[in-house]
Design goal:
mainly alpha; 71% helix; 0% strand
Amino acid sequence: WDAYSAGERLFGLRVTEYPDLDKTKQELQLLEKLYNLYGNVISTVGDYNDMPWTEVPANLDAMVTKISEFQGQVRKMPKALREWDAFVELKRTIDTFLESLPLVQQLTHPGMRDRHWEALCEVSQHDLKVNSE
């Protein structure tokens, strides 16, 4: 499209408008912004989920800061994106993780004893490996 427009201008012809291409170009630019952020969020949350529990307390403040930054970036996204499924999923992922961080913070409290972890394992029916790497 750019090459055709440049050729039309070069020969002094009226530049042909392509409204569908313009709309598609704008949508692709929006999608690029959205999916770049989406990729960063999914990668970061995945890294946090794979982090050994022994490293969580030292990284908790950085986790809160990073996820809050993502939340700020989502708020700054153009309004045209807010109806898209990918945007809704991205926002939900960030909000859910941010919502769980206070619980994680409480679980890192030094007052948590083995008996507390055993009770959590029983209630959740999962083997939580909090002392292992």
